[in-house]
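Task card 7
Instruction: Convert sequence to structure tokens.
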Amino acid sequence: MFIQLEEIKVARVYNFSAGPAVLPEEVLREAAEEMLDYKGTGMSVMEMSHRSKAYDTIIKEAEADLRTLLNIPDNYKVLFLQGGASLIFASVPMNLMKNRKAGYILTGQWAKKAFAEAKIYGEAVELASSADQTFSYIPDCSDLPITDDMDYVYICENNTIYGTKFHKLPDTKGKILVSDVSSCFLSEPMDISKYGMVYAGVQKNVGPAGTQIVIIREDLLTDDVLPGTPTMMKYKVHADNDSLYNTPPCYGIYICGKVFKWLLKNGGLEAMKALNEKKAKILYDFLDESKLFKGTVRKEDRSLMNVPFVTGNEELDAKFIKAATEAGFVNLKGHRTVGGMRASIYNAMPIEGVEKLVAFMREFEEKTEK
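Output:
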């Protein structure tokens, strides 16, 4: 007996997690329907050989759809790799730090970790930082102290923990720009030609944890990597083998591919940007008028994806998080390093989720003031 999943009613919460994060329900239902039998193969994608004809179609369609979404130039390679963004903190200098020197802009925890990792392999130079105000803003990057011997300039474009976003890319003075876009990937259009390399751990906005996507300019794919670089960390090896040098994260890529098709079906990245701006405005407008809740980021640097806020009282923060969880608004607790609250409103978060969260926050505020 087969049960149609659309007949099954499930209790879905509003999941504001920063990652692993909310995915489109339509994608989850499609994957569930194909779990036991993918397109007549008699097996799940989880069980399928990555060398099979069926899987070859999956990974090729995923790449083609991603190229369409981002209008990726022909001279850039798309790599689907194992691991999270933290692994790329090491593979970036291994592959790109030819002169053993690079510049880093420190705007949060993940940029700091990438900076520390780069120091293992060469001279990592702090070009700018917003640590003086707990990473609550993006520093001025119009005239950075970039030297001729630097191989690249590195940024974390959207800061998941602190809720800031580079709305204008730094002036790299002709040097390669490398960007971690994990928590803003595919939330809006981006001009790939402005970067030497962009990468994302997909669990923020695109798919399940354990998959990386790297988009890198072809001229940067060389055998000239740092001595001791493991084969699995060489981008050229993966590019030469179409992301199939070893067994890739097959199921993660399959889900990413479904998300790409969902984005295309819903108008692409221009439409997604408009929706994300609308969702963010609802929440930020409330925070700006609230007497209880306050946003923690300078207005011009606010992220559309991650919105941190506080009451100014740790006990009250905890009370709010508990009440919100009981009401079906889950994973609002801020990162352990900063506390407070954080609402991650990625692509798959419906606008009614944000509207209902704001209504709940308003009600909580009114009760607190009595």
